[in-house]
Amino acid sequence: MFKKLTLVASLALLGACSTVPITGRRQLSLVSDSEINTLAATQYREVIAKGPLSNNSQQVAMVRTVGQRIQAAVERYFQQQNASDQLAGYQWEFNVIQDDAQQNAWCMPGGKVAVYTGILPITQDENGLAVVMSHEIAHAVAKHGSERMSQGLVQQLGGQALSAALSTNAPATQQIALQAFGVGSQLGLLKYGRNQESEADHLGLIFMAMAGYNPDGAITFWQRMDSRENQASPPEFLSTHPSNGTRIADIQRELPEARKYYTAR
């Protein structure tokens, strides 16, 4: 009887799949778009409320300009693919959090973006910022948050539906959500996390190119990032991110495709 139930559960998980745009990879999807967008909006409001938000008008204007251009490119891409329904429920927001120690940015499902001031000296200009923001937005439109959330529900809560998990164990579910959205740290599924990062690099190159930013700038950005990283950083196989050397090599292979979408503004 137990084996039969396990088989049924396994078949159900196999059926709960979606497809990543551009790459065509199949991914686990146990959470509906409306559920995860609602949860992300709640978590985003909490993070933004804690802030503190930057009061540097130039920084905020740059982040919102770049974000809105990439947003328009993403919407245009999905419209061209007759897949605009995949962005249903998106309510884009772009905010800058004042934290010079955080060299980071993220995008939650539904287009909720935050950029930390600590990444801006490395991005240097709009094109460098577009590398980072297009990568983070790619995580959202590739539904990596939903995929990570689904994996977390399977690992920690036995594959419970999101609504049931929230009602029975809301704190644990919210922690899974923060990890899934890239706001917290995540252990386990290391190789899969690196695959998602590489996938976001690939999609991000295309989105930034469609937005009129030079995708070749991704190479110089990651070279700058590499020069700043601590030499004591863990080896690649212990990290959820590809090493910068691997990332740069992958981007170099993908640039010819991205350049086809690029028209300088």
From TrEMBL:
Q: Would the keyword Manganese be found if you checked this record's keyword annotation?
A: no
Q: Name one GO cellular component term.
A: membrane
Which residue range or ranges hold the Peptidase M48 domain? 69-253
The record's free-text note on cofactor binding: Binds 1 zinc ion per subunit.
Gene Ontology MF terms in the entry: metal ion binding; metalloendopeptidase activity
Q: Write out the similarity annotation.
A: Belongs to the peptidase M48 family.
Concerning CDD domains, the annotation shows:
M48C_Oma1_like (cd07331)
Annotated keywords:
Hydrolase, Metal-binding, Metalloprotease, Protease, Zinc
Which Pfam families does the record cross-reference, listed alphabetically?
Answer: Peptidase_M48
Q: Which domain of life is it from?
A: Bacteria
GO BP term, example: proteolysis involved in protein catabolic process
Q: Which InterPro entries match?
A: Mito/Outer_Membr_Metalloprot, Peptidase_M48
What is the source species?
Hymenobacter cyanobacteriorum
Q: Which cofactor does it need?
A: Zn(2+)
Protein name according to UniProt: M48 family metallopeptidase
